[in-house]
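From the methods appendix. Each design record in this collection lists the tokenized structure first, followed by the designed amino acid sequence. Records were kept in a plain field format so they could be parsed without special tools. The example shown here is representative of the layout used throughout.

RECORD:
FOLD TOKENS (273 positions):
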């Protein structure tokens, strides 16, 4: 597949000193950047190369969903590498990547209160989704052999232009900041943060304490689809292994996988007489 390079723009986001984000490969149109990043793993200097596209014709979200993004408005990027992470920290890669994306977005939109909705959505203070991550891993003998991290950030896509089914629960950096955001600058910050988070994980440092400080769901009444059942309860926090702690009718559960399908908004407490 021919890669269109656009050295004038996207290469500004590359830094040869980084393991992740040492080079940027730009495509005007591609199936999914995650697939291209995985294929690049077997090419010279393919590890850590950032694959960016203006448009995906087969963009994937978590749980088999389609990721919709109009041409040239947002940041669609994937990168793959062979991480050297201990088995205890393997499940935390998605959390580390989400923190990187959140921090990079926050650095350009400092007044927005950006948080992480388990497992790895970046949301604004009201829970509207700004970015989603699709982390695809391959294990060998129980250890992480390769990781593909795909990131979709709503950048210059105004909610008024989003399809109705997305608009309800999503926003964008431009909407939060009140002005367009430079996608190349954002990519540079995402790659810098991802490179640091990956290095920290490989040094054995857990990102969970920082996730707890940025967690959006704590104390909220939720409904979670685990793939096999629906769990209702109040979120009690994040366990050391990154699972979501939910207090339900049968006691406390630790969910390692799942998707929040409903957040119950509580009525404001009545004023004291
Ligand atoms: C989700 O929230 O469901 C995850 C969305 C991940 C979307 C990104 S866009 C770049 C990369 N390529 C894909 O096909 N998906 C991810």
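DESIGN:
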């Amino acid at each position: 597949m021919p890669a269109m390079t656009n050295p004038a723009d996207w290469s500004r986001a590359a830094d040869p000193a980084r393991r992740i984000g040492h080079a940027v490969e730009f495509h005007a149109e591609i199936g999914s950047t995650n697939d291209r990043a995985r294929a690049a793993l077997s090419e010279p200097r393919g590890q850590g190369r950032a694959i960016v596209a203006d448009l995906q014709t087969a963009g994937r979200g978590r749980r088999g969903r389609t990721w919709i993004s109009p041409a040239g408005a947002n940041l669609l990027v994937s990168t793959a590498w062979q991480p050297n992470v201990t088995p205890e920290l393997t499940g935390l890669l998605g959390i580390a990547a989400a923190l990187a994306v959140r921090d990079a977005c926050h650095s350009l939109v400092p007044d927005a209160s950006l948080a992480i909705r388990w497992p790895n959505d970046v949301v604004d203070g009201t829970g509207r989704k700004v970015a989603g991550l699709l982390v695809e891993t391959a294990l060998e003998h129980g250890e992480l052999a390769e990781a593909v991290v795909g990131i979709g950030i709503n950048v210059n896509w105004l909610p008024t232009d989003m399809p109705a089914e997305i608009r309800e629960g999503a926003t964008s950096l431009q909407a939060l900041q009140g002005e367009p955001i430079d996608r190349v600058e954002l990519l540079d910050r995402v790659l810098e943060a991802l490179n640091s988070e990956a290095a920290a994980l490989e040094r054995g440092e857990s990102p969970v304490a920082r996730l707890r400080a940025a967690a959006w769901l704590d104390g909220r009444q939720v409904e979670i689809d685990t793939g096999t059942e629906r769990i209702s309860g109040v979120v009690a926090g994040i366990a050391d292994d990154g699972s979501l702690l939910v207090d339900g009718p049968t006691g406390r559960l630790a969910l390692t996988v799942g998707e929040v399908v409903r957040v119950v908004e509580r009525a404001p407490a009545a004023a004291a007489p």
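APPENDIX NOTE: The helical segments are 33-40, 93-108, 164-167, 173-177, 183-202, 208-214.
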